[in-house]
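Hey,

The postdoc asked me to send both predictions to you directly instead of through the lab channel. I've kept everything plain text so nothing gets mangled by the mail client. Protein one:
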Amino acid sequence: MKTLFAFFCKALDALTGLVAIAAGILLFVPVFSIFYEVVSRGLFNEPTEWATELSTYCVLMAGFLGMGEALARGRHIHVDMVISHLSKRKNLILRLVVSVICLVFTAVFCYTSAEMVYTSYDLDMVAASTLRMPLWIPQLSMPIGIGVLFLQFIRLFGETMQAYHQEVKGGKTV
């Protein structure tokens, strides 16, 4: 079982890394498009109609795609005011409970966002702008990013279960 979990973690690291690279690349697009907009507007008095919209899509997509990497690196927001005062065993139990809640939330979010992407694709929905971006393209970052986040919560749950079992085997008191 441990080797299966180790394989899962290794594969998840690779997947998370690829998705994080995509998020990083997406963050460069706004830099160049806004730079182009400034030069085009300032030097040639020819503003673009697409730069702001494209930048918005890319930043939002990068945010969703980067969530799994943030959790994997321990960079998500967390409040340790309570957990810093708990014993190790109680802290592990709390982490297990929170992991289960997060698993349920991310599973529902992933499913509903995938439905939204499918609906946008099926109905050929496009943005009501001059760019006319097919909406399923930026929306696709939601189920992908939340799906990776879901898998990271599975990992967190598994690692916490292992740590809890080690804590219990050690016979330490609460």
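Protein two:
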Amino acid sequence: MAKTTSTRRNPVRRAGESAYGLLLVGKNVAMASVALLLLAAGVWTSWGTAQHSMLTKGRERGTVTITRCGSDTCTGPFVPADAAGTDRPKVSIDKSVTHKTGERLLVAVKPGTNEVVRTGWGGALYAWVPFGGALLLAALVVAGGLRMRRTAWAIGLLGLALLGASFATL
């Protein structure tokens, strides 16, 4: 019977390996936190418009006919969809959701303002564009920082699909 001998590692080497492992865990925690922060910021930014575009029950809804466009916004008269609403001679909408003057859009009024947001699929997808961008950025962090390439591809493709669908519906 052969006698087996076990060699013990030097305590300094064990401490160095533990410290390196702790640094790796810390890096992964930091990268995951950055990715989650990006996604949370995307949702937070998108929700400011998405709530008015998607949750239209109880909000004043109607149509706006684009009469004039400036550098950032377009304006036109608002006609409410029901009799309880009020006609507004001039409301503003983001220029990127409309294509030309004379266009009629289904919109909802942001409470307490003369700003309107587009409703329907086009408006809802446009509202989530910041989240789509955040998905693309988070995919880079997940791929580069966490080395999770398949997950990063999935996140990136979801962001790209969201941006593409928004572009296609507007």
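Summary for protein two, as requested: The chain has four helices and six strands.

Thanks,
C.
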